[in-house]
């Protein structure tokens, strides 16, 4: 198991008038190589959950196991955690600070004990993996890149460590359609190569295309957990949690209402098109 | 994410929360004067009870109203000790080298300690019950006479209020970037002093960058909406001081006068 979360709770500013519960008794586990999406209305505890899972907040109640190890156990070596778990926060481009892209991407490898040559190779691999031109950008200031390129450079900085697990918070926000498509392709590829991916997002279309399993958080509780097609199938429940579903899922619903026999666990256009074609052929003229 | 600033405004509906900010701020200044003027035991009894009543009227939880006081206890202890040990007195109780313990020294130590604690509690009550923007408006209106000697009061107050408004934003951003860099393997807490100093650029560079970017964006946004600054600046609502405000000021002034003439 990559992640095992057991009865996790969290309260902000405990003991003050501003006390607010963020998570209440949340439990789930994520296996190696899964691609899991997390959705939830603003303030449902997503960010808190993400911080707790990445060991960036101490867990006062409940346990977080990563690869079977309690990350809040006394004496647990955090630097090991940082090497196997990559975290990409919202607007990661704001964390770029070095004078060149190459140095910035290498930042996470500083304490890795790798040789200079190995580090250079890793950096080149990471920069090329995110689709940037290594020879062009390596000596450039990260601040001189375009918005989409900055995002890629920041992702390269996380990938350079070659983590086994990757947590992403709203990675598609602020990207243009092309950039979004490229990012999702990259994530699907990394996942196919064995990386466990956990993606928090409001973007139902992106999740519908890339994720296979979906967790829904509602007011600090785990409201749903299952294959994304199944969770999206119940559009009423999703609406109750203040969430939308992917456009392809909505289209499938509308087509079904028109009498076309389209399965209702469709989440992406890749599934929608063949399903519509089959339905048209099988059912004769619509 | 979890940073609650010392003295950060806590919404409420108590008398202190509802009082006019101008009255609160001038009253605060008068009370500081009263605390400094207080010199006798009877005088202290009066001043302390006055300030405790104010704190009680604010309906703040005591541990929050005295938060900074408790955090600074070690500092107070040192201040008290220095006064007790090194106050030069004609009638020492005990003397050894430059160390002198005397009744006067102990009194002086207690005096200074009480003053700091009382002023801290007062300023806590002020900032905990007044939204920063109301406080800024109050300071501006109290500063407005300075206009006649050429001080650009409007600009100064705009600069102050923008700065105050951005404190929470910058804190949140610092938190976010710190977390993000920690996730990338930066170590801010552990290590020797030199290591920690080396860990600062990944934190400071992005914060400075974003602060400048924000300042730029704000300037453009203000100009786009027609901000011209200076004497063209008007207030949203300018009201005369309510009777309750004058009454509160009168009480504070009375305390000052009592400390001067009675004790």
Short description:
The complex is a heterodimer of chains A (286) and B (263). Chain A has 286 residues and is of the alpha/beta class.
Furnish the topology, listing elements before pairings.
The complex is a heterodimer of chains A (286) and B (263).
Chain A: E1 3-12, E2 20-30, E3 35-40, H1 46-53, E4 61-66, E5 69-70, H2 78-84, E6 85-88, H3 101-106, H4 116-129, H5 134-137, H6 147-159, E7 165-169, H7 177-192, E8 196-200, H8 204-210, E9 213-218, E10 221-227, H9 228-233, H10 235-240, H11 247-257, H12 269-282
Parallel strand pairs in A: 3-8, 3-9, 6-7, 7-8
Antiparallel strand pairs in A: 1-2, 1-4, 4-5, 9-10
Helix pairs in contact in A: 4-6, 11-12
Chain B: H1 15-18, H2 21-37, H3 41-57, H4 62-65, H5 67-71, H6 73-86, E1 94-96, E2 99-101, H7 103-129, H8 132-143, H9 153-183, H10 193-198, H11 201-224, H12 243-261
Helix pairs in contact in B: 2-7, 2-8, 2-12, 3-7, 6-7, 8-9, 9-11
Give a verbal description of the structure.
The complex is a heterodimer of chains A (286) and B (263). In chain A, 39% of the residues lie in helices and 22% in strands. Chain A has 12 helices and 10 strands. The termini of chain A are far apart. Chain B is mainly α. Chain B folds into 2 domains: 7-130 and 237-263, no CATH class; 131-232, no CATH class. Chain B is built from 12 helices and 2 strands. Chain B has helices at residues 15-18, 21-37, 41-57, 62-65, 67-71, 73-86, 103-129, 132-143, 153-183, 193-198, 201-224, 243-261, and strands at residues 94-96, 99-101. In chain B, strand 1 and strand 2 (99-101) form a beta hairpin. Chain B is globular. The N and C termini of chain B lie far apart (49 Å). The model of chain B has no long low-confidence stretch (mean pLDDT 84). Classes of the chains: A alpha/beta (286), B mainly alpha (263). The interface between A and B is medium-sized, with 31 and 24 residues.
